[in-house]
Amino acid sequence: xxxxxxxxxxxxxxxxxxxxxxxxxTVAGFLLILAAITALVWINSPLGDAYENLRALTFGPESLxxxxxxxxxxxxGLLAIFFFVVGNELKQEFVHGELRNPRRAxxxxxxxICGMVVPAGIYALININAPETIQGWGIPMATDIAFAxxxxxxxxxxxxxxxxxxxxxxxxxxDLGAVIVIAIFYTAAISLLPLFxxxxxxxxxxxxxxxxxxxxxxxxxxxxxxxxYVPLAILVWVLVHESGVHATIAGVAMxxxxxxxxxxxxxxxxxxxxxxxxxxxxxGLALPVFAFFSAGxxxxxxxxxxxxxxxxxxxxxxxxxxxxxITGGSWLTTKVTKAELNPDLKWVDIFGMSQLAGIGFxxxxxxxxxxxxxxxxxLAHAKAGVLIASLIAxxxxxxxxxxxxxxxxxxxxxxxxxxxxxxx
Length: 424
Prior knowledge:
single chain; 424 residues; mainly alpha; two-stranded antiparallel ribbon; disordered N terminus; disordered C terminus
């Protein structure tokens, strides 16, 4: 494959150094947070209208229903690159890593389900006597994987890698669940023909990597692989978008289809190669641009959020519901099934990560728009509720996970062999 222009460049090449820096989760996290803060400051400044006009700017072919705003291109288009990288990373974990063990793989999946049901239940309970806001029950179900992974990278130095894998798995299942909820309860109709076409495209994407029949001829030809894979990936994305399903699911699906084993004289598997190529683009372009266009939420009416059952339900659902659902659901699952927590992790680590899962943003804001399209007042309060909940979740998770990271770094410095297991 010939997608990587800098991998074999001399070490002094500035592009090489930049790409390597962008492969760090910490660097990516700082860029994403900086972009989000910039958006928040800009939209709440006297120049806020300029920000709104910028993200509302549309372009794209109308004939393909792709005349989209910059905000939508960032959330549906660029973010699909990030989801592809995450799906690809999960595939590696399922085949070669932590998630090979079904007992451990089961836990984040159940945690994700509980982390959706409990927040929705809390919101519904708070809004049970408010028929004008009860339809927003789906808002606190979603975890924003991009922000959650970024915050974990920034504050989680020293934490076991298994915690990041747990969060990735949970967030992917969470996103898939949120997409299903949107499709069933918040979308007028799903177009089955484009969805079927996308499924065929994903299957073809996976087949072409297997090294048999047509795939073998493709891999042995002089034609660069990206000439086939990139147009196919774009086609799959367009079809998923046309179907009415959130288009980032196309990225997850193709990432999970990547081949993780080497064949013949390949120096590395396609999975590892494409991760090396795409991670800098994901971290340096897709995530910061997405954050910039998604995080611009006005602080207007913040004082009224806690008196509006919609805003209060969202905050309680994201901040408390995620903790109870994820931590409680995981712990209970280990008691009643054969599922097990990775021995490198402790329940306080899962508690801190469950706080991180309370970061809403993209999908939460999307469901907010769908829930209160005809109610501007509740829409404003709900958006502010998502922002407030996300800030509370970030601060709380930062405190807990920073302390846990410091604890693990002390253990590493002291030497694991001299530390009593009970001290962990």
